[in-house]
Amino acid sequence: MMFGDFRLDAQEREALNAISSKIHKPAKCRIYAQDEPARYLYIIRSGAVRLEYQREDGRNQIFAFLWADNMFGTAENGLYRASAVTLIDTYLFQIPYPALRTLIEFRPRIQTLFLQHALKYTRATERHVLLATYPLVTKRLAGFLLECSKQADFFDRRSHILTLAMDRKDIADYLGIALETTSRTLKVLEDMDLIKRLSSQRMQINTEQIRIMISQ
Amino acid sequence: MMFGDFRLDAQEREALNAISSKIHKPAKCRIYAQDEPARYLYIIRSGAVRLEYQREDGRNQIFAFLWADNMFGTAENGLYRASAVTLIDTYLFQIPYPALRTLIEFRPRIQTLFLQHALKYTRATERHVLLATYPLVTKRLAGFLLECSKQADFFDRRSHILTLAMDRKDIADYLGIALETTSRTLKVLEDMDLIKRLSSQRMQINTEQIRIMISQ
DNA sequence: CGTTCGGTTGATTCCGTTCAACGCGAGTGG
DNA sequence: CCACTCGCGTTGAACGGAATCAACCGAACG
Fold this sequence. Notes:
Chain A is α+β, with helices and mostly antiparallel strands. The first copy, chain A, folds into two domains: 112 residues, Jelly Rolls (Sandwich); 82 residues, Winged helix-like DNA-binding domain superfamily/Winged helix DNA-binding domain (Arc Repressor Mutant, subunit A, Orthogonal Bundle), CATH 1.10.10.10.
């Protein structure tokens, strides 16, 4: 990575802190809506957020699920490109764009942080493309579970138990499939002994076997 | 956009120029390969490039088609994430990463340029997700043609004639469909009077009607 | 004139969508 | 406490669209 080792120094961190406010949102709460003027940039302190895009034809596409330490709220022509909605109880940093721009003029080095995050988000979106274009839905979903299991907060490495913060519709809208297919395919994965469903939101997953299945 | 109005000043441009070399690649030439150590960042002066990702299962996924003024060559853990291949005769700026890092330490403001490009690429990738997840292939391909028609170098606004720099396989690998489907779907679009094929690489396209079709 | 490569077309198969019904737990009010 | 509803997840049957495998076409090239 280009700036993998970058860290803000104490002064920079404080300067950024000075213009940020800490805010809280309960679960299933809209933080902002698509096409609304982009006033703030957000950083997740804890919780989870989905970015969703409303298509002209009425369907919904989820661009990303975001976790602690991720950033969101980038704009296109001054407007938010997608809506941001909390999946669960979430705490955020809220940074007003005008103040941020001023800060960056004085301390251009801070941009590295944002460049770092932009590159991270881009990689995630590329992985998203890879998932969403698997011709077989089993691979899409299996790959999605692997992706989720990278989130330490929601995956226990000992017991291999994954807790999903999103519902079936969210998964379907992320992978571009019908929500019934999500259900059915989870069953297929269970029949292949790749996962064991404990409840609708919790499952034990066999990461090794899943990886093998995907690469075939 | 966050830094839509940013421009390098004369000094900065010169400093960046000093560490860049101008190189040339003929059509269908590999610039670098996936998983190779990332030594250079590239900016396209003229021409067109595709970024392609080789999957474990042997299939190929194209991440993006890039045109003049675009940047590519970002790394993950020091390695290129995808291969870069020219579609046509292409002229590039080649910027070595070590020199770039040093330059940025002295002139951190230059980073804005890279942040700008990263955000632009991210938006393109999000549009890619939207295209690749249309349930109907006709919409995927139609949307792709619209996307291509944004490139002034390859689309004549008067005659509405689009020149494709990529072949059928590339389009298929970009949209996640079979190459035969690309052919068939072009025929469907022609039967719907949305396009008129002049040759395999050139076609006249009805952007208005296509937009309407997609939003239904 | 034969070869090769990219593009097109055809027939069959299969996978995911659609529309519909059903199950189940949580919350609510009588 | 039970009946009812509501949201969410699951299951079933029929349909349709894209993949696959195969053949074919035409232009470029030696």
